[in-house]
């Protein structure tokens, strides 16, 4: 479906794909009444140094004072590497926090985008002047990331001077999208057969990056216009590490052998030096490292196993038929990986597709496409989400009896068992953009404790343990399986209070406030508010969400 921009003024949308090994940018200039084009930034300083299409290496060199000295492809130049050694420059991971590094890289990518637009478009300088004060940003991230990481990315953008530091998430110029969802948008524009969409068949999107693999599954129900996620998305991170002495060889491998390798019976050669570089004991002659094809094949096997096992599991458990696997990302250019995956999925009659249009910019292009015309309106909950709450003591319940020593006593005389886990959203549940989940809450305070209602925290937990296990009834039954997701901060001081007499024969009054915490899991960001009834009319107020580090 063709998208026409209905805004009243021209604006610019920029999508940053900040990857663990390579990063890229796509953008679109939105003119009122026009169908926007999606374009990628394909020129960067020293870009000829890398064979990565429209991406640059995610590398930053800092000097001893923490100043940026070289970024991206520039940092791969031999003269820069020599200077770095002489002057003691360090790469990002040695000196800076994740937010600092992301901030510096966002700033660099933004400046490259500005220069590219000014140089590549007719009247580029005038075009930039017309949009520079009205720019929206779309940030892609791995499937497994959540609110805490999004908060860090938002902080990095503010630190880079691209957005205001006090922008509220609900009114921000920043939006987030998972790499899997962005790749779906790209696949729909480049290579996924239209018949797949119209027949309601499932499609698995495999985004193979330099350091991560994201796997997502979608379908478009018959007679519908939008897509829905039909299986829990997966995310895998490579944990291999490089050492300074072989960084260059690894880089050469990534640019050549990793892409071209297709036969495990033939030796492979990695050219990394000059004819003067020789070490026969390590199979190095004339600047080339010789590797047996069978050894090179083992480098790919963990990724092959990871992808094929996940695809197999999805096909077994998904209630909808899967017919296609779409392979995108820089890793999809590997002939060996493609051949092995195609052979692995053949028994299930799955067709594996590779878009041929710059597959390594699938995420950034897809992120812009989603901004222009988002077509995913239902997603699957990755975990079970809920709250720890106090429940009425039941003297006949063995779990309650075992916790009799920890009972809580309220002014009303109620006896409560603490830390019961109440599920608000179960793992595997389909959540649409309009879906709200809520939990009814109440709080009791003495007549002299009303100030305690001004900032009432509510902690949301997720249960991550045991792939298909149901959450336990109480937190202490599997405390290691729970993770704090976020704290919802609510001001209840304006809610109607009920003065009630204290129980158990105690003189005096206490106040009880009843309310519901409502969560919206739509899109890639979690939102929350408080709901209550006043004079028979439902009222709502926004609640702030503070995420915990769940890494």
From TrEMBL:
Domain of life: Eukaryota
InterPro entries, per the entry: ATPase_NBD
SUPFAM superfamilies reported for this sequence: Actin-like ATPase domain (SSF53067)
CDD domains reported in the protein's UniProt record: ASKHA_NBD_HSP70 (cd10170)
Name of this chain's protein: Actin-like ATPase domain-containing protein
């Amino acid at each position: 479906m063709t998208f026409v921009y209905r805004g009243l003024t021209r604006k610019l949308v920029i999508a940053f794909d900040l990857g663990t090994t390579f990063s890229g940018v796509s953008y679109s200039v939105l003119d009122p009444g026009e169908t926007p084009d999606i374009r990628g930034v394909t020129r960067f300083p020293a870009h000829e140094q890398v064979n990565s299409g429209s991406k640059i290496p995610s590398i930053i060199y800092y000097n001893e004072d923490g100043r940026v000295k070289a970024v991206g492809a520039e940092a791969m130049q031999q003269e820069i590497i020599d200077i770095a050694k002489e002057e003691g420059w360090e790469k990002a991971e040695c000196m800076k926090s994740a937010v600092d590094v992301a901030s510096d890289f966002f700033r660099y990518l933004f400046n490259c985008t500005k220069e590219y637009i000014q140089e590549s478009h007719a009247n580029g300088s005038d075009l930039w002047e017309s949009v520079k004060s009205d720019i929206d940003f779309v940030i892609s991230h791995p499937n497994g990331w959540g609110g805490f990481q999004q908060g860090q990315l938002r902080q990095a953008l503010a630190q880079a001077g691209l957005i205001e530091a006090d922008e509220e998430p609900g009114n921000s110029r920043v939006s987030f999208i998972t790499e899997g969802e962005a790749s779906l948008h790209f696949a729909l524009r480049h290579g996924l057969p239209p018949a797949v969409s119209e027949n309601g068949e499932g499609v698995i999107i495999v985004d193979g990056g330099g350091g991560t693999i994201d796997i997502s599954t979608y379908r478009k129900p018959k007679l519908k216009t939008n897509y829905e996620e039909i299986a829990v998305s997966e995310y895998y991170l490579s944990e291999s590490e490089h050492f300074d002495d072989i960084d260059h060889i690894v880089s050469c491998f990534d640019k050549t052998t990793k892409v071209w390798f297709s036969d495990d019976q033939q030796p492979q050669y990695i050219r990394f030096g000059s004819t003067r570089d020789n070490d026969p004991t390590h199979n190095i002659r004339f600047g080339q490292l010789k590797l047996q094809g069978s050894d090179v094949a083992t480098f790919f096997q963990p990724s092959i196993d990871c992808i094929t096992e996940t695809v197999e599991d999805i096909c077994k458990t998904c209630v909808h038929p899967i017919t296609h696997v779409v392979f995108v990302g820089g890793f999809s250019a590997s002939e060996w990986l493609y051949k092995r995956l195609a052979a692995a999925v053949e028994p299930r009659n799955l067709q594996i597709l590779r878009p041929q249009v710059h597959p390594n910019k699938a995420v950034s292009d897809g992120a812009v496409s989603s901004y222009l015309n988002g077509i995913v309106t239902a997603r699957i909950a990755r975990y079970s989400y809920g709250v720890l709450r106090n429940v009425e003591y039941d003297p006949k319940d063995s779990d309650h009896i075992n916790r009799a020593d920890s009972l809580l006593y309220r002014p009303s005389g109620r006896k409560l068992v603490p830390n019961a886990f109440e599920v608000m959203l179960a793992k595997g549940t389909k959540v649409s953009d309009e879906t709200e989940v809520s939990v009814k809450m109440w709080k009791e305070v003495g007549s002299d404790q009303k100030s305690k209602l001004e900032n009432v925290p509510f902690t949301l937990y997720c249960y991550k343990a045991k792939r298909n296990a149901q959450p336990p009834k109480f937190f202490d039954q599997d405390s290691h399986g729970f993770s704090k997701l976020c704290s919802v901060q609510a001001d209840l001081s304006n809610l109607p209070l009920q003065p009630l007499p204290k129980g158990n024969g105690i003189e005096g009054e206490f106040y009880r406030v009843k309310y519901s915490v409502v969560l919206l899991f739509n899109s890639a960001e979690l939102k929350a508010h408080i709901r209550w009834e006043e004079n028979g009319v439902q009222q709502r107020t926004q609640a702030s969400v503070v995420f915990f580090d769940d890494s």
